[in-house]
Write a structure and sequence with these properties.
- This protein is an alpha/beta fold.
- The protein has eight helices and ten strands.
- The protein has one domain (about 1-225): TIM Barrel (Alpha-Beta Barrel), CATH 3.20.20.
- Helix content is about 30%, strand content about 20%.
- It has an eight-stranded mixed β-sheet, covered by helices on one side. A two-stranded antiparallel sheet has the order 1-4.
- Bound molecules: iron/sulfur cluster (SF4).
- Iron/sulfur cluster (SF4) binds near residues 27 and 72.
């Protein structure tokens, strides 16, 4: 399998673990604020293949605890992703999966076969603004909801997270998200950060006051709501 990129060391991407981050190209969303837009359409040549990644990991045994698989949307790789994770697990690394939740069947399969230890799932916005925020007319909301319901059951450690952009969010966003993820173990509001590679210009981070108000809206639904990255 082609590996679009590898960050050899991260202390941030995998909570509580020293990890590396593996980027897989391709995504079924077109979020206007995406930080990995060059990965969405396979614009860049792959950095390595899975055999080279596994060679790297063999040399890092004892130095890294975990591997984060991110994208793009890793679950679009289907059984190819599962095979890669099985090889990573065979080297005794913990595995974190970042996902937009649009492939609930594969997500459940990976969890039930104990192939992933931690799932970070994006909640793009309230259901009525999902398509706008995901940048596609049909974001597969029923599939996303199925993934949310599954993670709320708690079979695997997880977090939900939302990248918050001033132009795409208001109080109603969180009044919509709150009941949807009620009882979630962790929920993070991540303020948008502008970069040259973001596909749509003119987007901004929310104000600190808006972020704090939105955190307070979420607290009755998810007491473990935090603002990350500020
Ligand atoms: S789901 Fe993630 S990788 Fe895909 S477009 Fe949105 S932010 Fe980018």
């Amino acid at each position: 399998m082609e590996i679009a990129g590898l960050q050899k060391l991260t202390l941030l991407d995998y909570p509580g673990k020293v990890a590396c981050t593996v980027f897989l190209a391709g995504c079924n969303f077109r979020c206007p604020y995406c930080h990995n837009a060059e990965l969405i359409d396979h614009i860049l040549p792959p950095e390595m293949d899975s055999a080279e990644l596994l060679d790297f990991l063999k040399k890092r045994r004892g130095l890294l605890d975990g591997v984060c698989l991110t994208g793009g949307e890793p679950t679009l790789r289907g059984q190819e992703l599962k095979a890669l994770i099985e090889e990573i697990r065979a080297l005794s690394f913990a595995v974190k999966l970042d996902t937009n939740g649009t492939r609930p069947d594969l997500l459940q399969e990976l969890v039930r076969e104990k192939l992933v230890d931690y799932v970070a799932m994006d909640i793009k916005n309230s259901p009525d603004r999902y398509a706008e925020t995901a940048g596609v007319p049909a974001p597969g909301l029923e599939a996303v909801k199925q993934s949310v319901r599954f993670l709320l059951e708690g079979e695997v450690d997880y977090e939900f997270r939302t990248t918050v952009v001033r132009e795409l969010f208001d109080d109603n966003s969180f009044l919509g998200i709150g009941p949807w993820i009620r009882g979630a173990k962790r929920y993070f509001l991540q303020p948008f950060e502008d970069r040259d590679t973001v596909p749509v210009s003119g987007l901004h981070a929310p104000s600190a006051a808006d972020l704090e108000r939105w955190r307070k809206i979420m607290l009755p639904f998810c007491p473990a709501t935090e603002i990350r990255g500020r």
